[in-house]
Amino acid sequence: MKSPILYVFLNSISQSMGKRPPAPLYIIRSHESSISKVSFNRNSDCILSADDDGVVVITSTKTMRSSRRWKAHESAVLTLEITDDHLLTQVIGLLLCLLLTIAGMAGTTW
């Protein structure tokens, strides 16, 4: 089975309307399951992605390589939000399930 792929395009939607889809500038292969959520931090220096197996990946936009990958949950991540120093994820049945500092230090789990 091929791994799910996250394609990174830098074209605006208006440029590609009615045309063939542009070729991706980068192809990121960091998940083994279907990607359920993608988000960027405020500075756009990292891409956050989560999948149906509960895996969360932080990818550097400078190197386009995963800087951190971990199994955050046992089921699909529905919400993935980042603040200046925290990452919040949500799965079915839990209001707020994980809070980690982006610096890599474990925070609080509810």
Short descriptors:
WD40/YVTN_repeat-like_dom_sf, 4% helix, 110 residues, four-stranded antiparallel beta sheet, mainly beta, WD40_rpt, transmembrane, disordered C terminus, 1 helix, Thrombin, subunit H, transmembrane helix, WD40_repeat_dom_sf
Please tally the helical runs, counting DSSP H or I stretches of 4 or more residues.
1
Domain count:
1
Give the overall average pLDDT.
Answer: 75
User: Order of SSEs, N→C?
Assistant: EHEEEEEEEEE
Distance between the termini: 34 Å
- Quote the CATH topology: Thrombin, subunit H
What overall form do the CA principal axes indicate? globular
Strand order across the largest sheet: 3-4-5-6
- Profile the largest sheet: 4 strands, antiparallel
From the alpha carbons, calculate the radius of gyration and give it in angstroms: 15 Å
Tell me the name of the CATH class.
Mainly Beta
Sequence stretches where pLDDT stays below 50 over 5 or more residues: 95-99, 101-110
Do you know the CATH architecture? Answer: Beta Barrel
Determine the strand fraction and express it as a percent band.
Answer: 35-45%
Category from helices, strands and their pairing: mainly beta
Strands, total number:
10
Instruction: Please estimate the helix content.
Output: under 10%
Oligomeric nature of the chains: single chain
Keywords: Membrane, Transmembrane, Transmembrane helix, WD repeat
Transmembrane segments: 87-107
WD repeats: 28-69
